[in-house]
C-alpha cells in the first residue's frame, strides 16, 4: 500500500520535498512510516519521536495506517 508523507519547514528542506509517497505492507503503523522516512537521505534531522498526524488527526506510533492515508510529520513550532 502507498501512504503520502507530508513534510513541513526544516523537515521538507532536509528531505528535499514537501511530500513523499511511501510503500508499506498492509497493517503498517505510524512507527513503520517513520522508520521508512528515516531511511531516506536527509532524514537525520527528524527527532526520535516526532509529532505525527494521520489524515489531520494526531496519531500514536502504534496506530495503523491505510492505503491513501496522509501522514504529516510535524516539526516543532516556536513563536511569540
In short:
By secondary structure, the protein is of the alpha+beta class. The chain has one domain: Beta-grasp domain (Ubiquitin-like (UB roll), Roll). Helices cover 20% and strands 28% of the residues.
Task: Describe the overall structure.
The protein has one domain (2-74): Beta-grasp domain (Ubiquitin-like (UB roll)), CATH 3.10.20. It is globular, with a radius of gyration of 12 Å. The termini are far apart. It is an alpha+beta fold and 80 residues long. It has helices at 9-15, 30-38; strands spanning 2-7, 19-23, 51-54, 57-58, 70-74. The protein is built from 2 helices and 5 strands; from the N terminus they run E-H-E-H-E-E-E. 20% of the residues lie in helices and 28% in strands. A 5-stranded mixed β-sheet has the order 2-1-5-3-4.
